[in-house]
Here is the input.
Amino acid sequence: MTIHGAIEAGGTKFVCAVGSAATGSLRTATIPTRDPDATFAEVAAFFRDAADFGPVAGIGVASFGPVGVDPASPDYGKILATPKPGWEGTDLLARIRAFLDVPMAIDTDVNAAALAEVRAAGPDMRQLAYVTVGTGIGVGLVSEGSPVHGIGHPEAGHILVRRHPAHEGFAGTCPFHGDCLEGLAAGPAVSSAWGAPASELAADHPFWEVEADYLAQLCMTLFLTMAPQRIVLGGGVMKQERLIPLIRARTADLLGGYVQAARDEAAMERLIVPPACTEPSGLVGAFLLAEQAAG
Amino acid sequence: MTIHGAIEAGGTKFVCAVGSAATGSLRTATIPTRDPDATFAEVAAFFRDAADFGPVAGIGVASFGPVGVDPASPDYGKILATPKPGWEGTDLLARIRAFLDVPMAIDTDVNAAALAEVRAAGPDMRQLAYVTVGTGIGVGLVSEGSPVHGIGHPEAGHILVRRHPAHEGFAGTCPFHGDCLEGLAAGPAVSSAWGAPASELAADHPFWEVEADYLAQLCMTLFLTMAPQRIVLGGGVMKQERLIPLIRARTADLLGGYVQAARDEAAMERLIVPPACTEPSGLVGAFLLAEQAAG
Here is the structure.
């Protein structure tokens, strides 16, 4: 069998794996994200050790953003403007090529996750959005089977939403926009506004309704723009399972019956779902990118 | 040369043409939209008379929505839930086939316009949004060269926007959502909120700033979701040329430097533009749909 390498490059950890999208990971390692030199030294060591499984035909990278995703651009594979110290301008693909010169491809972690969820959904799935709600809010989009790229990649975590009345007076935590969606609803905003992370808030806390409202506004916007056949909600905050039913109900309310295919509760249960991949979707997506790169 | 037929089917008028995307229209006719029987009788008469130019190889229809755009669905070519009396459920393609049985394709007027603008922009344009601001606000999207379809077609005229402070107390005119973008910024909303259409409001009227803010929120949302390389702004309200510079400036403000490729004024001038097609973009798009259908 053909072995591929997958790297899910995140702001707090790098997950490395060898295996394939079809078989899953044969070995993985989780490496804390430090500076690029220290981090890539450990990534290189992982792939050196993993050579036991056979030569790696290609490597796919599912990266935190913003990152250059256009193979025709000099930015391809480079981390762009980021508040993360030491990483701006880092050429991820060149760092990998320095220890393993095989075909490579890179996309955002969320575009890669969207690719993996399209594959998991089966052959009729052409249009899908993958949303992660954690330290930030990331959105990956696949249209007609391809990850969406244009001037950069989707950044729909930063859309403007309407302030929930129970959330007045909270300035928001986004360094660029203050109270955009990420500034109101990502992990740091939740802790800052309510004094504790989502996992520690009681079931009857007003937080749940506020959070569901913001994420429903995102779902509404996605349905009205990309018309996705499925919105997959993942990430740390979404581990609170009570959120998904609240988001489905609120999205239906907001759409007001306008989108014919999203009118009833049964439709919403098919349209807004947790991840279907058993391994992290971003890692599976990195294997898919590796397969595409290796041809 | 191969002759195609094009129909831009609108809520107030049907524009019919024979010609091709490359040569433009050889003959056109504008037919007021009445009930389906009366309207299609005139459409049939146009194509009968236009047979002088030679046989039509295919017909493309750029239609008002919502309309079935998935060729695999039984809804394909049919007008869906519409407030327009007599039109809900009308099978546009069957009505045409009754007088001219040639290959046909249909999409929304705005998706067709987006296709036409992609062609006008040249081979590097893969990701484009076409926005029309008139009686309604319509948005067509092309991703990787194909019109975006999923659960239906894009309906981004109905996204939620934040109310402009100078517009407090206005309930909005959208029958589905009240104060969604269309309910606040389309032609009927402008007349209702300010007492006159955009064309009659003075250059220093507060309307201009409010309208530019709403349309800039749409542009921001489009950049953050589909990452279009170009947003084309067309339609009746956009004929007021002072709007585009206001929208560019406000979009840049709202993005706050977050989207690297949309940071400066020069970038905004390339990214947010009026239509490049000399004939109406929707009609040119209908010719392109006809070409695709005829193969």
Notes: Residues 21 and 288 of chain A are 6 Å apart (CA to CA). Chain A is about 35% helix and 20% strand.
